[in-house]
C-alpha cells in the first residue's frame, strides 16, 4: 500500500511538473509573440503593403552585404551593434512600391523626388526601394551620396576626353566596383553586351559585342578612364532598357548636389568650380532625362547636399531653376518624421535589441517631445541611455 501511495504521489508530481513545463513553454511562446509583434516576417518588398505598415522587417544577409557600401555611417554602426539590418516599413516606401508595381514600363520613365527634414529617413527609404529593385531583377544605378564626391575628392585631374572638365578618377572607380558588386547577379543573368566600340587610347578600346563586365572592369583597372567608362556604361544601360533587354532603377541620394552653385573642388587656379565643370555630372544628368523607357528614377534632395540653399526643404528651392526644369515633371513625396505608431515601434525594437530598457511611459513622452519623433534624433538621443 505504501508503494502504491508513493507511486501515486510520484505520478502526481510528474503530471504537475509536466503542467509547469507546458505552462512555461506556453508563457515563453506568448512572450516571444509579444516581443515580435512589431516585426513582420515578410522580407520580400514587392509584397509590402498597408498591412505591413509601421512594422519592421529584417533585410536578408546576402542583400545586406550588397548594400553596405551605400549605407550611411550611423546605420552601419547600428547594424553592427544589433547584428541585423532592419528597416521600418513606412508610407513613402509603400507608396512608391505600389507605383512601381503599376508602372507601364513601355512608356517614358517616371521620376520621383523624396524630400523632408534632415534625418527624417529619406536614405533608409531609398535602401528599402533598392531591395525591392533587386528582388524584381532591376539593374540598379545607385549613387549613395553625391556631395561626398564634391567635398572630399582624393584626386582631381583634367578630363581625358574633355580638357575643359575635371575628373574624379578614384571616387568614380570605387563607384564602378560598388555598381558591379550590387548588380553582378542580375547582369550575369541578362548577359548584356556592349552595343558599339569605345576607343580609350591608341592601344586600348572596348569592342562592340564585349560583355558589359569587360567595360566595367576596364574602368576599375584603368582609373584614368573611369569617368569615361561611367558615361559609356550609363549609355549602354539606357540602350539596353530601350531595347527591352532589362529594366533599370536609378537611385541618387542628394541629387541637388549636382545643381549646387559651387563645389569644394578647386581647379588649377585654386578656384572653386561648379558641379557642371565635373565630367561625371553630365552622365548622371543624362540618366535622369526622359529619353528612355523600361525604368524609373528615384531621387532625394537634402539641405546637407548644398551649403548655399538651406532655407527650405522643398525640391523647388533645393534644386534651383536648372535642376527643377531638368527633372520636371516629377512626383514629389514627403518623408516626414515618425508618426506616434512608428515611434512606438522603434522603441520596442530598441528594447528588443537590449539597446534601451526600463523606459517609463513618462520618459517616453519626454523623449518624444525632445526628439520631435525625428529618426536621427531618436537614435542620437538613445546612445547615452
Helical percent range? 40-55%
> Beta-sheet strand percentage?
5-15%
Shape: globular
Largest sheet: 5 strands, parallel
Query: What's the average pLDDT?
Result: 89
| Structure class | alpha/beta
Q: What is the CA-atom radius of gyration, in angstroms? A: 26 Å
Annotation field: number of helices = 15
Termini separation comes to: 64 Å
Instruction: Tell me the strand order in the biggest sheet.
Output: 4-9-10-3-11
SSE order: HEHHEHEHEHEEHEEHHEHEHHEHHH
Molecular structure report:
With 385 residues, this protein is an alpha/beta fold. Helices cover 48% and strands 10% of the residues. It contains 15 helices and eleven strands. It has helices at 2-35, 61-67, 73-82, 91-102, 122-135, 146-151, 169-190, 212-221, 226-242, 279-287, 315-318, 320-327, 340-352, 361-371, 375-382, and strands at 56-58, 86-88, 110-115, 139-143, 157-158, 166-167, 198-199, 205-206, 248-252, 295-300, 331-334. The chain has a five-stranded parallel beta sheet with strand order 4-9-10-3-11, sandwiched between helices. A two-stranded antiparallel sheet has the order 1-2. A hairpin with a 5-residue loop joins strand 7 and strand 8. Helix 7 packs antiparallel against helix 8 and helix 9 runs parallel beside helix 10. The longest helix is centred in the first third of the chain and has 34 residues, at 2-35. The radius of gyration is 26 Å and the shape is globular. The N and C termini lie far apart (64 Å). The model is unreliable at 1-35 (pLDDT under 50).
Amino acid at each position: 500500500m505504501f508503494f502504491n501511495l508513493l507511486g501515486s504521489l510520484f505520478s502526481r508530481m510528474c503530471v504537475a511538473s509536466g503542467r509547469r513545463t507546458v505552462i512555461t513553454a506556453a508563457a515563453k511562446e506568448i512572450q516571444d509573440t509579444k516581443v515580435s509583434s512589431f516585426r513582420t516576417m515578410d522580407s520580400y518588398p514587392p509584397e509590402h503593403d498597408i498591412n505591413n505598415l509601421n512594422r519592421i522587417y529584417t533585410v536578408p544577409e546576402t542583400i545586406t552585404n550588397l548594400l553596405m557600401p551605400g549605407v550611411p555611417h550611423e546605420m552601419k554602426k547600428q547594424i553592427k551593434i544589433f547584428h541585423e539590418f532592419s528597416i521600418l516599413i513606412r508610407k513613402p516606401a509603400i507608396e512608391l512600391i505600389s507605383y512601381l508595381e503599376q508602372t507601364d514600363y513601355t512608356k517614358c520613365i517616371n521620376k520621383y523626388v523624396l524630400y523632408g527634414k534632415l534625418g527624417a529617413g529619406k536614405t533608409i527609404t531609398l535602401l528599402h526601394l533598392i531591395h525591392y529593385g533587386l528582388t524584381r531583377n532591376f539593374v540598379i544605378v545607385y549613387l549613395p551620396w553625391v556631395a561626398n564626391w564634391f567635398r572630399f575628392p582624393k584626386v582631381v585631374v583634367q578630363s581625358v576626353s574633355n580638357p575643359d572638365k575635371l575628373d574624379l578618377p578614384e571616387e568614380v572607380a570605387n563607384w564602378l566596383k560598388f555598381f558591379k558588386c550590387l548588380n553582378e547577379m542580375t547582369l550575369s543573368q541578362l548577359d548584356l553586351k556592349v552595343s558599339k566600340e569605345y576607343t580609350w587610347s591608341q592601344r586600348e578600346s572596348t569592342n562592340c559585342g564585349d560583355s558589359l563586365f569587360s567595360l566595367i572592369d576596364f574602368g576599375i583597372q584603368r582609373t584614368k578612364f573611369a569617368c569615361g567608362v561611367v558615361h559609356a556604361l550609363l549609355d549602354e544601360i539606357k540602350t539596353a532598357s530601350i531595347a527591352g533587354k532589362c529594366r533599370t532603377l536609378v537611385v541618387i541620394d542628394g541629387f541637388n548636389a549636382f545643381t549646387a552653385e559651387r563645389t569644394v573642388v578647386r581647379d588649377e587656379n585654386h578656384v572653386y568650380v561648379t558641379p557642371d565643370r565635373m565630367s561625371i555630372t553630365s552622365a548622371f544628368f543624362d540618366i535622369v532625362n526622359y529619353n528612355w523607357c523600361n525604368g524609373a528614377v528615384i531621387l532625394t534632395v537634402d539641405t546637407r547636399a548644398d551649403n548655399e540653399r538651406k532655407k527650405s526643404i522643398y525640391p523647388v528651392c533645393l534644386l534651383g531653376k536648372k535642376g527643377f526644369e531638368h527633372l520636371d515633371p516629377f512626383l514629389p513625396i514627403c518623408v516626414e518624421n515618425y508618426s506616434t505608431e512608428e515611434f512606438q515601434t522603434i522603441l520596442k525594437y530598441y528594447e528588443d535589441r537590449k539597446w534601451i530598457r526600463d523606459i517609463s511611459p513618462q520618459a517616453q513622452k519626454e523623449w518624444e517631445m525632445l526628439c520631435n519623433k525625428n529618426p536621427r534624433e531618436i537614435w542620437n538621443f538613445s546612445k547615452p541611455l
